[in-house]
Design goal:
The chain is α+β, with helices and mostly antiparallel strands and 192 residues long. The chain has four helices and six strands; from the N terminus they run αββββαββαα. Keywords: Nucleus.
């Protein structure tokens, strides 16, 4: 048993450190260069459009966004429009490009939600309070939904198809949060 700082000799420690760093350096020199490759987006067609709007005393008020692949699937264009005539507000339009990684994430969110398995035949029909539309195309799969505006989860649970409408409700909330975050990041960052 060694005490009072009596441990392995410093020469042994130095030798080990030097030997280790030499081995690592030798190993790094002889390794082929590391090539980072991320999974490329497939060239399948992708399109997503969401619309929520109504016509009221302030005219046609709506929120709409879409995302579609461009340039052979290597990126996508996101378009956003928000029209509110309340207090004479004007139409807000934003457009931006996002990478294929973002498109893959949106596809993953859509596929994980299993919205492509749903049917809107038992959902509330559009009414004077407005309507919502969701259209998705992924490759050869295409689906389009139309329903009344959903104010809260109470509207979902009181519908004829609460499970399907719940999937729609949460997917729309996720997509809106994602688009609002993209807009915030893309347009509100001040350059140095």
């Amino acid at each position: 048993m060694k005490r009072n700082g009596e441990g392995p000799s410093t020469s042994t420690t130095r030798r080990f450190s030097t030997a280790t760093s030499t081995s690592i350096a030798t190993l790094l020199i002889h390794l082929p260069p590391l090539r980072l490759s991320f999974p490329r987006m497939s060239n399948e067609t992708f399109y997503l459009r969401y619309y929520s709007g109504h016509s009221g005393r302030f005219g046609h008020e709506f929120l709409e966004f879409d995302l579609r692949t461009i340039s052979e699937g290597s990126s996508a264009a996101v378009r956003y429009a928000n029209n509110s005539n309340y207090r004479n507000d004007s139409l807000i339009r934003k457009e931006m490009c996002v990478s294929d990684a973002m498109v893959e994430e949106v596809k993953r969110i859509i596929k994980d939600s299993e919205i492509l398995k749903e049917d809107d035949s038992k959902w509330p029909q559009k009414n004077k309070d407005g309507r919502q539309e969701l259209e998705i195309r992924i490759g050869n799969e295409h689906i389009s939904f139309e329903t009344a505006k959903i104010g809260s989860l109470v509207d979902v649970t009181e519908s004829d198809d609460p499970e399907g409408l719940r999937v729609f409700y949460y997917l729309v909330q996720d997509l809106k949060a994602l688009v609002f975050s993209l807009i915030s990041l893309h347009f509100k960052i001040k350059p140095i």
